[in-house]
Specification:
This is Major facilitator superfamily (MFS) profile domain-containing protein. This protein has about 500 residues and is mainly α. It is built from 17 helices and 2 strands. The chain is about 75% helix and about 0% strand. The protein has a two-stranded antiparallel ribbon.
Length: about 500
């Protein structure tokens, strides 16, 4: 970004003698178009991460015969992206705290695009699994660092609200992925590229679903680095230039930004380290503060909450289309409780696995799109609430409502009520993930913030990978107990949040 020089107004001469903290400078920069543009782009990063997760479910349903996959291999490929996200979170968190939020986001988005394009040419289990694992490792950054990047451009009063606005794009990613899949998979064309390789519509889904992420990566060339990161790296002049530009965008170029010096954050190391010893020391510096009081307690609570939220949100989301299809088609007159639906779904799935069918029911697309719109509505309501209330009380209420919905599922037999309660439990857990990231941005200092959010999301993604693999077995063997335990964990998450500042 080019240097910005402004002649100070006469009444501002005395202000040169004062150094402003970052939060004070951010408050004086105002709120307006700059934050809205950054919110949209950060939301698109989150959408890109969701696109990679949602597209594989439709690709595997439509292309498992071409790839020669059995049911076990389909499940492994479906979960391997979460394994990639989990294993790379520490790496991306370190890079974000040492090289910059914007730089990491751009590299990750372009790398994700490359992996997705390559995935469209996969020929079997091994190539597809390796490429989806690589995509998961790349998309890990955009699914976590985007929260940090956006949060550092917003004041504490607006931070939670804007993060919630950005999270709307996660649900829009569900709508986008399902809509594009519905459209593309309605065709049955074939392009013979070689004697043994045929390009079919399901392969094109990878490219169409990664385009938004690629475009956001290009757009980031026009965006600034986080001024809070720049300040933490002793680049206060550049940080001040970014804040001045924000002020001009929000208030008009004819006005003058009355901040001329920024106070460095207390406790932030400015030392530049070289070589492998420097890298090891830097890794220690990025991680050690998270293991010290009071951050250790905050980190443990955020990780616990994220594990619970991601497990229920990610695990049940995989079941949602089939659940909606069955509960709304129930004609018994007595209704269907949730456990009966899930147990019936499991037995039906075992039978269908014996045939190689590429047919996807229309209802699957429809109900997935409905879930996405419900998520967008919930995120919108959450953002409006967070404008007036901090994230802590909202998190307490949010997790308690999700836990209550899980308990009510054991007693409600009306088909539509079952569908509504499932939607409430899934989407309130999804909002819990947003609230956890909004809290993390506020709780941890700048020089470890990227590492903290990445590790917190890493634990959550691992719970998604684990729970989605065993949810079918749990529901078949101890369905009611499983729901009660999950509801208990949600109430525990609500109680633990009381311990956060």
């Amino acid at each position: 970004m080019a240097a910005i020089t402004l002649e100070p107004p006469p009444h501002a001469i005395e202000l040169k003698k004062r150094s402003h903290s970052y939060e004070e400078a951010l408050e004086l920069a105002g709120f307006g178009p700059a934050q809205y543009v950054l919110t949209f782009l950060s939301g698109c990063c989150l959408m890109a991460a969701m696109n990679e997760s949602i597209v594989i479910s439709f690709v595997l349903s439509a292309g498992h015969c071409d790839l020669g996959l059995d049911a076990r291999q389909v499940g492994m490929i479906g979960g391997v992206i979460f394994l990639g996200i989990m294993l790379s979170s520490f790496f991306w968190g370190y890079q974000a705290d040492t090289r910059g939020r914007k730089t990491v986001l751009q590299c990750a988005l372009f790398a994700t695009t490359a992996c997705s394009v390559a995935s469209s040419f996969a020929t079997g289990f091994t190539s597809m699994a390796v490429l989806r694992f690589a995509a998961g490792m790349c998309v890990s950054a955009s699914s976590a660092i985007a929260y940090t990047y956006l949060g550092e451009f917003c004041t504490g009063q607006r931070r939670g609200q804007m993060v919630a606005y950005a999270a709307m794009m996660i649900s829009f990613g569900i709508v986008y992925g399902a809509s594009i899949s519905w459209w593309i998979l309605s065709y049955d064309w074939r392009v013979q590229l070689t004697d043994s390789f045929v390009y079919r519509p399901w392969r094109l889904l990878f490219i169409l679903c990664t385009i938004p992420g690629f475009l956001v990566g290009v757009a980031f060339y026009c965006m600034p680095e986080s001024p809070k990161f720049l300040l933490s790296q002793n680049r206060s002049t550049e940080a001040l230039q970014v804040l001045t530009k924000m002020y001009q965008l929000n208030n008009g170029r004819e006005k003058y930004y009355e901040v001329y010096e920024l106070t460095p954050e207390v406790g932030v190391s400015m030392t530049t380290k070289k070589g492998w010893d420097g890298v090891r020391q830097s890794l220690k510096d990025q991680t050690a503060p998270l293991l010290e009081r009071p951050y250790l307690g905050y980190f443990a609570i955020c990780c616990t909450n994220c594990i619970i939220s991601f497990a229920i949100y990610g695990g049940f989301c995989l079941w949602f289309p089939q659940i909606m299809n069955q509960v709304l088609s129930d004609t018994s007159g007595k209704g269907t409780v949730a456990c009966k639906v899930l147990q019936g779904n499991k037995s039906g799935q075992t039978q269908s696995d014996t045939q190689c069918s590429e047919t996807i029911q229309q209802e699957t697309f429809y109900y997935t799109i409905v879930l996405g719109f419900i998520g967008m509505f919930c995120s919108l309501v959450l953002s409006l609430v967070l404008r007036r209330v901090s994230s802590k009380p909202v998190m307490i209420f949010n997790m308690a409502i999700a836990g209550t919905a899980g308990i009510l599922l054991q007693f409600v037999t009306n088909s539509y009520a079952v569908a509504v309660l499932f939607s409430v439990e899934i989407m309130f857990c999804a909002m819990g993930v947003t609230l956890i990231n909004a809290s993390a941005v506020s709780l941890f200092p700048t020089h470890v913030k990227g590492m903290a959010t990445s590790l917190i999301n890493m634990t959550g993604r691992f719970s998604t990978f684990l729970f989605s693999s065993v949810v079918g077995m749990l529901m078949a063997q101890s369905c009611h107990l499983t729901f009660y335990v999950l509801s208990g964990l949600l109430f525990l998450s609500s109680a633990l949040t009381l311990l956060l500042p």
